[in-house]
Structures
1.
Amino acid sequence: MKPRRILVWLALLLTAGIVASCGGGSSHSNSMQPIVTSGSNVQTVTVNAGPANNYANGLFTTVTVCVPSTSTCQDISGVLVDTGSYGLRLLTSAGGGALTLSLPAQTSGSDQVGECAAFVSGYTWGSVNLADIKVSGEQASNVPVQVIDPTFAAVPADCKDGGVPADDSLQMLGANGILGVGPYAQDCGTACTQTGAANPALYYGCNGSSCQVIAESLTQQVQNPVALFATDNNGVIIELPAVSSPQPSLTGSIVFGIGTQSNNSVGSASVFPLNSSGEFSTTFNGQTYPGFVDSGSNAYFFLDAAATGLTVCSDNSGFYCPGSPTNFSATTFSSATKTNVSFTVSSADSLFSNQADFVFNTLGGPNAGTFDWGLPFFFGRNVYTAIESRTTPVGSGPFWAY
Amino acid sequence: MNAGLHVTQNSAYSVHELDSPNGQVIREYAAPSGKIFAVTWHGSWAPDLRHLLGSHFAEFQQALQSSNGRAAHGPLFVEQGNLVVELGGHMRDFVGRAYLSDQLPAGVRAEEIR
């Protein structure tokens, strides 16, 4: 009888811990949004200054990487949780990052595989290596990851011609790595499996310092590790409490799987299927614009000074600096689903004036012709990101729900 | 470049649309004089800004180096003299435009450049 009694107790504890009730605990929002805090598919995430101590609205977690099929592992903290990219990228200690573990290289013939991964405002360059990845109780085995390393082969001209800076140092990246858990399973897709002019030149075969573009199969491309989990592999939920004023840090959860466990059901959230560009639409002041949801963008990035009436900061053209806090309302929609979103933008200069604050619910910036619903959108809202072709109880990915 | 080319024209400017083999759509805006005053791009992959900005590429890169403080992580908005460059989108979908604000033909507003 004794073992059974222990099991009953465990079951009670798990049930109690699955959903932090609104009556107790501190990890829920003002609007009584439930935040899951325990479970084998739940990992703590924190918005804070990050490892470079200067990140505004950066969502971080810890990822364990291991040499495949061994217990030789390293915990990497300060990894940015990004629903706008796909795959795990880790900055080596050579670039000021945390990764010191030597992971086996992916090869193409006798060459080592390199990758130029383009982000909108920077690129990461380095080798492709293989790792077992562990987060919460989930594991993905033998996963192609990018090791960001400024001492790897010479950066190819194609990569530099993008014109944006290399995120090859802790100062530039602001993180020890990026955990890309967006709505796709690979960071490139079928285009990179092709040869010739149709290949977008992300993957390279490197012999010493000399690299040439190669075709890279889907399974060899850097992979969204969630898609490779044994279970809970159809997407993620980011759950962060509401924020009413600037603060030093904020704690929430990333929950793996959508409708796969009792703690990750979609409930009453609205489901927004993505179009072929990985986007949906946003209506603002009677006009419709493309839009997307991205935890790796650190503000509400939308439209421009002419369309919003907001002035761009004179000392930092990436953000808005209105004279006083300004309220906005927009409608996000896709197919038959529509949801109104209200938000406020205040001056980045005044938000940043308190050096101790790193969580900003009213940070905004320009993004001509588009709505990028960045991290402030996630505050007080559980946001589901479902992976392409994966089934969930509310339909197949890719979709967002909230 | 092995690309499809389409030309459309109105009284103020003509638009040359190039569809590149990797699926990128590039539009060049030319004034009646033939001078290119704007370029836009949209596709799954990052743009080749060295090619698209031509002689203004170095100017753009210099402007990037002058930014400081807590960075915007997301789109990029650069205004350097008369050169305006806007990069947007996310991994697997890149969009943006560049234009010379002093070269827009009379009556043409930046919002038309898409």
2.
Amino acid sequence: MHRIDPFTDLVNSLVSDTLASTAGFQGELTLCATIVLILLLRISNLTSRIDSFYVMLLGSATALYLAGPWHPVEHPTELFTGLLIYDSFTVYFRTLLFLFAVLFAIFTRISGIPDRDAAPDAYALVLGATLGMCIMASANHLLMIFLGVEMASVPSYALAGLTKGRRKSSEAALKYAVYGAGAAGIMLYGLSLLAGVLGSLHLPTMAVRLADLLQPTNLEQGIGADTHMVLALAGLMVLVGVAFKLSAVPFHFWCPDVFEGASAEINAFLSVASKAAALALLARVAIGFGYIPEPPVPQEHVALFNVAEGDVAATADQGAAGPAAPAHDRAAQIEALAPARDFLWRVLAFTAVITCTFGNLAAYGQTNIKRLLAYSTIAQAGYMIMPVPAAMVLADSDPQAARAAMGAMAFYAGVYLFMNLGAFAVVAFLRNVMHSEEIADYAGLVRRAPIVAVCFSVILVSLIGLPPLAGFAGKLLIFSYLVQAKLWTVLVIAGLNTAISLYYYLRVVKIMTFDPEPENRLPVNLSFIPGTYVVLISLPLFILGIWWNNLNELATAAARHLF
Amino acid sequence: MESTYVTLLSLIVFLPTAGALALAFFPREKTDAMKTFSLVVTAVVFLLTVIMALPGQGGGWQFDAAVSEMQKVFSLDWIPSFNIRYFMGLDGISFPLLLLTTFITMLSMGASWPIQKHVKAYCILFLLLETGMLGVFLALDFFLFYVFWEVMLLPMYFLIGVWGGPRREYAAIKFFLYTLLGSVFMLIAILMLYFASDLKLLSDKQLVVANVVSSYVDQAAQAEQIAALRAQPQPIHTFNILALQQLGQHTDAFDTIILGKSLQWWAFLLLLLGFVIKVPSVPLHTWLPDAHVEAPTPISMILAGVLLKMGGYGIIRICYPICPHAGYDLAYFVCLLGVVSMVYGGFAALAQKDFKRLVAYSSVSHMGYVVLGIGVWSAVAGNQFNADAWKMGMNGAMFQMIAHGISSSGMFFMVGVIYDRVHHRNLDQFGGLFAKMPVYSGLAIGIFFAGLGLPGLCGFIGEVFVTLSVWNYSHALAVISASVVIITAAYILWTLQRVYLGPEYRGPHGDHLHPMTIRELAIVAPLLVFAIVFGVYPQAVFHYMTPSVDRTVDDLAAWTRMEATSSPSTADDAQEREASIAQQ
């Protein structure tokens, strides 16, 4: 009756795909709307009457509501013709990011940085970066990986220099930008090599091609041997980009300088949100090239034009380019990917161990609390990378354990949110009253501000990983999957690192409690609200330390689509 | 039934925590009220355990000394995704130590009156510490055990670091680092055991013994629970210490080979490392002299009286029953650790100039007996698996823990009493105290004799039991351990001579040597009374502990017999075992 020309067909399927995809993209769209609203208010000079804080708070809270884990994900689906993947892992990390945005907004409001004039710019940048981080967490396509990393990074460079007029701050921003640009360049080169060798940008398709390339029969006959070195090199280059975002050794140099130069608020943002997104991205990349998950369920298409059903289905099959391979093929492909997994777990385990040890050792000599916490985040990144090699080892033999290992990472990221946000909140509030970020000036703090000092101690002890605090539960989970994966060396080094880290975390506690107060310190009069905020942020560490079952189940469920 | 026990044991463990929370609301300047309140809390906890110890027939609160199995057991869901349970119980091994803990804690709270600095924080930390200590002895879930084990560290760190002597910060961090290092290794071992465990390997009866299946419900309900358990497809990992013991003794769950040795060999070594740091055994003892010397008197009492016992308790409860094969292989190594500590601690004590350091090294020496007594695996094929000597050794070790708890905390308190007056502990500047403080000196000599192991006092029984039992295991070790008694006598008698005898006191602050106060008397008198009672009538302690200790040893002896009969060789090499299992 009616002929469909190819163009209409394409438009039809694209439009319907986009419409169907928006359901899983509501959180991000809300962020976009909030950014636009803030900028509009800014241009129309309405910010003098409407505080952009409320817009930010409302926007991020709405995003949290729309994207939270109370919307169960039955099957993973690909959004926007396979550019993004929407599964429970996406949902978990987006929830973390939006939750952080809400808490961050309140934090900045209390601490007063950014002030009311700078707030619209800062909030727009923060939300923009968060948007990029959401894309990192749900990337399913090389283009999206690069786009996500850049969208997250570029606003971060500007945020690092937010305190205008401070030399250190500008220096930090410049340093960060130069490093970031370099890392992004290397990563882009790696991505292009991968795309060139494997002939696709779509991660699952690439994995299938890689599996074909690594088939044992091919390996024996030496087919594709010339590409192996290119692939390994490209893989390393991509990992450089991810390692930069994670501040993993040896791409951590920016971290202490940037943390010292930028304000504590921005440090909280960089150390929590940016790190969580980078972890999610690491998981996506590692699994993307080391494993072939169950093929996602094709989108339910909404037809805009009047098209016969069968035609749409046919287009979808061609368009989605998904590896709709039968199950036995999939098992064979997963097995064929073993060399890729071997390569990944070795590189990642090595990076994790080095990062962790270096971060902990370098933290010893620090006198500035922000530098100390910077090295602490480096060390913590090392712990958080560890479950990924464990999952790579377990992927073939015990997918359920591999899933749980990624759950351990997600769990730690959740706990880490409270630990580091709390730590930087304390630093910011104390800076406001005593105008110092030197550890020596914290001496005897427990006598001036007992509640904040106790909360800070709780946070630091949780970072060490002692029970009954949440940091312990996180470490326990990570250690347990290292045991399951039989990565003994990594396990022992991680254990020793816990003992090493004890010294410098406890040194801060010691100075706050044991030492006499310095004479020339400004009086420490913390008002009620900052104290309450710190208490409310450190309280979850107790609760999650004793009843960590629910978060663990949530985190494990988040990883259920990965393997 | 079960709910009574939940209430009772939770009350004992968490009453101090509740007290600590209540203390937070006390006004800052009411220091005496806070101390009194803390003393009342510790006394109530002590009374609760005393009520349990009173004679009676099980059922309600009374501890039934005739029962060798776990009693007052309860097990509640805690973290289902890891099969972690809120699981506690008591037997003859943990109950005497529980009593010792509540008793020493109460006395040392009484000894805390001279503390003037930050009283509120002191009392809060003190009570939190008590929760951790009690929890360690009651926990039967390995995760719960570990949590309590670690919970003690932070309060102890602050108690030494804030209220201690001149080198307190160094001592506090050293204590923390040593213990944390040990416990990290312990955590690795716990996880290894956890992932190797599988409840489905256990028989129905073993599941009930390990309380995986509640023993409070009727047979039909038990069968239902067991069926539900067996129906699960994957292995069911567990942190249940009793179940791990059953798995270690009756199955091959922990025999997989890792890096050339069996899993349980590694687990045993890692656990032992964690526990001997706490005991402490030479060469991992160096934190102890520093911590004991710098800690304030009441904390030294707790350190020596209770904390060291956790190491011994861990070895008896966890190392040996869970990893019998590794324990069998490494028995001589463990005994050697004990003997080396005894000898080294004794000689080191002889060389000390500081009164408190001397007492600290005497602890190293005395705790060596405990490790030695536990380690004498004399039930071997050569003597038809007769475990009598080993029973004697382990009973002796347990007794030694109680006796040392009493005598060493008494000794530390006596050192504290004199330090409060003259503000020094230099042995060369004492002398002639008997003339100035006759009551104090008399009591002190009694306590030190108990530490020396004079017959008729508590120290004697444990030492003699251990030394006798070693004879069956190794003549050489027996001779050495017997001669340690001479070193002990030497340093204690020489100390008594230098401190209490002599013509007159010539050291600093001689005019401050006023007699003991009533409070001090009230603390030392019960200690001395118990030192005498346990020396004259040791049955008072053995009555509670022997059934459970004997059962532990019998189980291990039965394991040795089974092991020796099932494989023709002595089955020293785990690899052979693995092969034989594969053949079957």
3.
Amino acid sequence: MHIADGVLTAPVVAATYGAAVVAMGVAAKGIKEEEIPKISLMAGTFFAVSLISIPVSPTSVHPLLCGLIGIILGKKSPLAFFPALLLQALLLRHGGLTALAANTLILSIPAYLSYLLYCKLPNLKTLVRGGIAGAVSVVITVIAVIILLVLSDSRFAAGDFSVVKIVMLGHLPILVVETIVTAFAVQFLEKNKKSWIAVKGD
Amino acid sequence: MNLKVSKKTVIFTCLIFILLYCGTALAHGMLLKLEEPGVFRVEYDGGGFSTSTEVILYDQNDKVLAQGLVDEKGKFYFDPNLEVYRAVANDGMGHRAEYKEGVKVSSLPKLPVVIGVIVVAVAVSVYFSNKSKQKLKVL
């Protein structure tokens, strides 16, 4: 789910960089010192976890953790994704620098929407809320990737080379894994480390 | 620097890294290698490949010499007499790899990089955690 250099067209790169700058600005606004530990740990976690390769024929996918990171960081999620993606691109050539903003957005938007969804479902059990947020985050990430790729090259949407088909099928196992991991991680946090869950308005 | 952190924070931090990083760390960037004259092989960094990967071969003037999908072994066969200067593989999922004649691609070993990044992330976290705790104590 890391778009490489040379895949996106110049207008898409420019638009995503513009949007990412706004997202980073909003995220950094009013940041408190006590939030930095969470952001730093989430950046490290994402860096490591998203390097775990899961071969799913006909492709290979990796965990995203957007839902969990979104529930923990709220609108500050881009501050964790951006440095992690930057380091992955610079150190491991995993994702491209021209696509850095796009990659940041396709993770940050689902993360924030998952957090909103988590806040909007107060009547459900924590486990269920976490699971739903985790699942929805994967779906939104996949949709975001498809939109960006199709905007760059309509060929991605056609025939056997259809990115829609491959990305959707490839991420079904990730959807299941993320649902379970997010559900249990959020339940663990609610019980043991409630301060780690982003409060409304974060 | 005071490195006192609560037990819960340490346990939670360790748990998050151990539970979520229990597999082999392998990025799935994509690689395009000239296996032998007339044969390119496409592979994800973590192993495997997508049969939807398209390979395009270019000459020095960026003219397309050949293009097509890889076979069931991740290989793309072409006429070895073609003067390929550059080749691009694209799996249609955002992964793209490039081969350039005479250019050797080197990459850092992953495990030390991952461990290094995690150590830095934890160190930053501990530092700011302590700093904010001290601030609270002063208040």
4.
Amino acid sequence: MSDAFLVADDVTVRFGGLTAVDAVSLTADRGEVVGVIGPNGAGKTTLFNALVGAVPCDGDVRIAGHGVVGWSPARRARAGLGRTFQRLELFGSMTVEENLRFATEAGALSERPWRMLARRRYQDTDRADAMLDRLGIADLASTPAADLPPGSARLLELGRALCAEPAVVLLDEPSSGLDVTETAAFGETLRAVVGELGIGIVLVEHDVSLVMSMCQRLYVLEFGRCIASGPTAEVAASPAVQEAYLGDVAAT
Amino acid sequence: MTDWLPFVTSGIVVGSVYAIAAMGLVVTYRTTGLFNFAHGALGMVVAYAFYQLRTEWGVPTLLAALIALFVVAPFMGLALDRLLFRSLERASQAAKVVVTMGLLVLLQGGAVAVFGARPKRVEPFLPTGAVDVGGVYVGYDQMIVVGIAVAALIGLELFFRRNRLGLVMRAVVDDRDLAEAAGFPVGRVTGFTWALGVMLAGLAGILFSPLLGLDTITLTLLVLQALAAAVVGRLVSLPITAAAAIGLGVVLNLSLKVLNDYPDVLDGVRTSLPFLVLFAVLVFARRGTLRELGVSAPWAGLQRAEPEGWKLLAVLLLLTALLMPDQRIFALGTTLVLACAFLSLSVLIGSSGLISLTQAGLVGTGAFAYIHLTAGAGLPFPIALLLAGVAAVPLGLAIALPALRLPGLFLALATFGVGQLLDGLVFSSWKSFSGGIDGLRGSRPDLLTGDKAFAVFLAVMVVLFVIAIGALRRSGLGRALVALRDSPAASASLGLDPLWPRVSIFVVSAFLAGVAGGLYAGHLQVASKTFFSTFTSLLWVTVVVVGGVQSVWGALAAAFLLQFLPDVVSTGDPSEWLAPIFGVGAVLLATRPGGLVGLLNRYRGGRLVGRLEAPEPDPEPANV
């Protein structure tokens, strides 16, 4: 078995009679960007939900060598598995800055709950401030997150996930709701940040150019099953994948 | 055996009426995702319309029933859908709960204003006479009631399975946007649903009126009996709901016979039984089987907590207490006690967005504990006050338990259950603790025996509450609660467990409520269970949300409006006209979580209260 940071083995999710994810295996390690692609309804988001523990699944999920079946989503997050959401899940009533600052302390608060009463102010603001600069949204620091335009909101969600210092982050369609320029800018920032922090990324994404330019390896899902996996160029060239998903876009 | 059968038959009859009401709840919830706390109150209004037509205006019984059920009820349903419920489609679950509770308060208060509080006798309208069925006499009226319930169940089931409109109704709640995009007449569907729901509530109300007499409270609280059955059916299944309702009716009636020899316990157990069922189902249900239907946003718009400005508040309150003329000082004291109770509730709702319907019971527990600790155990005043707070904490934990695993609506229902159990099993049955219906006499410490001295002390306590709440909101706990309120999924993705924040806030809220109860017993020098009913809790939540939960000023405003103002301007019973006003307020404001204080701020060009007192510059100014 692989000794990568995140290992999923034969993960299967059933909703009643429907098998949304069918025996999918996947690995992701620090420093690599892995893509998960497939048409709508292929089970990509459900796979993410199973990996973080938001929906129950059969099969084995391991984080840093620990079998995490039965762990809560919060515990898996503290073990180093972060995520973002296809439908934005920001803390709307907090400012941009507070979103990031809270991310730096959330895990610690759960590990030592008595600190919740003691800590009046944020203890460590450096990490959040650095992230603001890195993402280029420092001028929005005191804007309530609910009022952000989509481009900045996606960046903030990425930044918030990174502020929790994960080893591997699952990004669920980070470009949805963004236009072409914004997507390009997001890709640029993502590349820079990931290179700098040396974390691993699992990317679910419809934007083919973002996937092709970012990912070293790809997994292709269709109807919940993994129909192909391997290095990006190889997978993209396979006729089955082109037919199922990439179509003409990859060929051009 | 023949001794028991009459109890079983009449239990089936009562249960059938519960079933009709409960099916109405289920039908509306599963089509619109809106749980209607005012369901019973709507049935009550229809029953009053029936009474008015038949008894006051002399309309023949059948015609009166037809008009009430097929004109009045659908009209109310359609009107509510158009005017109120549609604007709630995407509101938070908390806002939905508060709005329908506001509607309950409004309808109940309105009915008292129009028809008076005195119960009306309703002549039986179903044929009398009975047949002998295997040794038991079964009345024709009983058979008719059961027949109606069975017909309603079969009719609704067929409708949902076969009829096209029924299928569309199922589609609407699964995905409203998709249903709309597919060209289904979503608006007509929800209107039809509410018409149907009010008709079922009205039918239950009319059938009940000759059995129980007609008064505004009993039928309004019919929603509670129906609720337990509907929750057994997971708020989705009609047959299970109907079966549970009938089972409940039978068990309740059998308990009459079994407990006949223990009249003291009888009342408490009988009223509590449905809530034992309700609470057990909610707490022990398998995870995921209780699903909230429909879209619901987090309580967005519950923006940043306003700075509490306790220094200005301290000056204001102390001056008020010192300068208040003697004939008003007692009323001021009562207001300040209520302010403490409201603060204990507002810190919970404001920081976590969770609704608890047990607060009056927690305050009552504190009040009784205080009296036993001072008069009984002879403990010094400050210690008794602290321990009164501690006494309420186990109950806070009992509510926190379901809070960990239930989504907002079901949590509100569970806390409702706890409140009713507390009322029925503890306050009503344990008479040495609560003093029964007469209550217990309390006392004040020697230093504070005068009304003025005690009022000044209460003002200090309010300020202490405000300071404590401010500290909590700025603490890590406060931030964790806001995060969990805004997005539980994102909180988990950052490693934040809901366990400790949720447990802590319920414990803090319960402790403050218990202390408020001690203050209550000290100020009024009497405490009786009648002050601490679940209906009071319900009114409090409505009033506190109307006042505004994002700052402590909202709770204070609510206390002054509910308690002090009526005392000054009116000599009659102010609750008659005040409750409906707050009902309207809740209906209008629950979607504006800022409440009255928030509205004031908005219309005065920004942050009125914040600007008036801002004791120190806000380190992170909000761009609201």
